[in-house]
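Practice problem: predict the structure.
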Amino acid sequence: MDQGKQMKICIVYGGASKERDISLESSSSILEALSDVYNISTCDFSGDYNELYANVKNSDIVFNALHGGEGEDGTIQKFFESKNIKYTGSDSKSSKKAMDKNISKKICRENGILTPDWMYFNEHIKKVSDFFMEMSLFNGKSIVIKPSDQGSSIGLSIIKNFNLDNKFKELNSSFDNSMKISNKVLIEDYIDGREITVSILGNKIFPILEIIPLNKFYDYECKYTKGKSRYVVPAKINKNIELEIKDIAYKIFNILGCRHYGRVDFRLSNDNKIYFLELNTLPGFTNISLFPKSAKADNISFQNLLLKIINLATK
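Answer:
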């Protein structure tokens, strides 16, 4: 038996987050790509940590294929750390920072990185109407309303040309929609421009990918329905701006303390200003996921990409 087959890897997937279905697809793709290389087992995480430990305790490494919820917010990472179990992806502290957009945006702003202006609401502020006057700051602008600690554009709404006088009812509805998903909500300036993302593997930065959704914005349907978005990789961007975007992405990856791999999302405004939106510490591995597309543009196959992630995690 070769060295690869001797290594025991447990793919942990599933979970109870809103992104469970995406995790199932990612894990299926990972299993197919790695089953002829390693001794693979799988664990559909039910929320029972005793059951989880029983499944992973004899593994050399866990491939974390969870998306969202406690699989991505640092909770499960902290558990693995407490049991001295190696796992792929960022550690508990950086996962927690990256998962909450309010926290990651604050850190970026403190480090001189441009991010859209925003207001943050948590479980103690359950009505946006309590901040009626403050919302006048957004008058005449387009705004994004979204959960602060969720991915996949779940619970996200955009209101164009917001005005307190005639759009407040729409704002309340959008806010309530986000609050159903999470008790942490952001209201953020909408940046008119291009949707771009930068994938990072260790200290390697892949070609920038531009997303062109067929819907009004890059929503859940566009993200996970084949043919609902176009992708341009490498994105057609001025070379100097391209280098600046990559530098900013790598800086964010490091100031948030991330490791192994991740994906940084930006809006590139019509006047070529670079706005940080979020950092995804566990990008998807489905057949239409962005991270593998960016790797492929750098001549790295899907299987090779996974092998490199495992190699980083076992060091």
